[in-house]
Amino acid sequence: SGTAKADEIDDLTIGGDAYYKTISGSTVGGTAYPGSPTPPYVPLPISTSTIATWKNDAADGGVINGNCGTGGDAQCDTFPLLLGPKRVNGNFDIAGGQTLTVDGTLYVTGNINIGAGGGIGTVKCAVAYLGNSCVIIADGYIRLRGGSILGGSGTAGSFLMLLSTKTGCLGNGGSGCTTNDSAIALENQVDGAIFYATDSLVDVSNGAFVSAVVG
Predict the structure, then answer these.
(1) Strands 106-108 and 134-138
(2) Nearest-CA neighbor of 65 among 48, 86, 43, 84?
């Protein structure tokens, strides 16, 4: 019902104006602007140095060498789980029915699966964050399934941020990617969090709802 802006627009009904290079199979209710230039690159709002600092903050709380989740390392295989700050050298799975409460920045060198194996997984910030937000960083992909519940501390203005530094997952191949060759996949009515992919695609599907997304 609003304005559409894209290099290529296919098979859409647009209530407002449309800015594009090419268009096909679409109707524009407002004014069409063919041949519109691609907007200039805008630097991402979080610098690589800030992300590096967050990773160091996590490691300052100790290192877990192994996967987290049921059957994983003994430090992080029992739920409900309160964890952080911590670096995890492995993958992190939060299965349906399990709850992870983030008590400090978490840095996962592998992949994160929330709602793994089906069902609803829950990830939230510890109450002590109050109005501040908590962060989980993954060098691999992040996948959320099954209506997973995500949130801040419960205080207004607090959010959970899930950040992937995975590279090369741009929707057209790549190694070690998740759904539709993305670095972050949000599926099946996933609710309320901030998602950030530094170098790859974010795939949003099936009624997912997010507070903010950058990719």
Answers:
(1) parallel
(2) 86
